[in-house]
Amino acid sequence: MERVNAVLQHPLFVGALGKANELEKNRVFCRHGMDHLLDVARLAYILFLESQEKTEFNVNKELIYATALLHDAGRARQYEDGTPHEEESARIAGIILPECGFSEQEIAVMIEAILSHRTNCAGDKSGFAGLFYRADKLSRRCFDCAASGDCDWKNKNARLEY
């Protein structure tokens, strides 16, 4: 997990997470801090381990965790100027990942998952991007949220699955 720890310590990641945390400090709905990022990582890893599709390009724990850490890195920019956070997150990931030792092929798979974590591009539920999309959605604990009644998220999790 050396490369994942390099992401955690990268100044651009630290700054992006800090800025998003500051902008979300009074947010009533789901926050996107370290708890969320690690929930997504752990869920994605569980889904991967349970998956029968383990043949996709070199998916491993490091790739899963680094993708999870970076998938919401662009949240602050979305709050500031409306840029979709998945686009800004992919841009940030494109800077950080090579500096942390990820290959071009790994980065391409990770950026595809980051770009599609909100909409899962055309509804494709297969492969790493589909697995990651599912983990991100399952990470929300709507059944235990005081703001669930006011939330306009359409796919609320009414029960615990993982």
Structure commentary:
This protein has helices at 2-9, 11-23, 34-50, 61-70, 75-81, 85-99, 104-115, 120-123, 127-138. By secondary structure, the protein is an all-alpha fold. The protein has one domain (2-144): Hypothetical protein af1432 (Orthogonal Bundle). Helix 3 (34-50) packs across helix 9 and helix 6 (85-99) packs antiparallel against helix 7 (104-115). The model has no long low-confidence stretch (mean pLDDT 83).
SS-based class: mainly alpha
Q: Indicate the proportion of strand residues.
A: under 5%
Basic shape = globular
Helix content: 55-70%
> What is the distance, rounded to the nearest whole angstrom, between the alpha carbons of the first and last residues?
23 Å
Topology readout:
Elements: H1 2-9, H2 11-23, H3 34-50, H4 61-70, H5 75-81, H6 85-99, H7 104-115, H8 120-123, H9 127-138
Keywords:
Hypothetical protein af1432, mainly alpha, globular, 162 residues
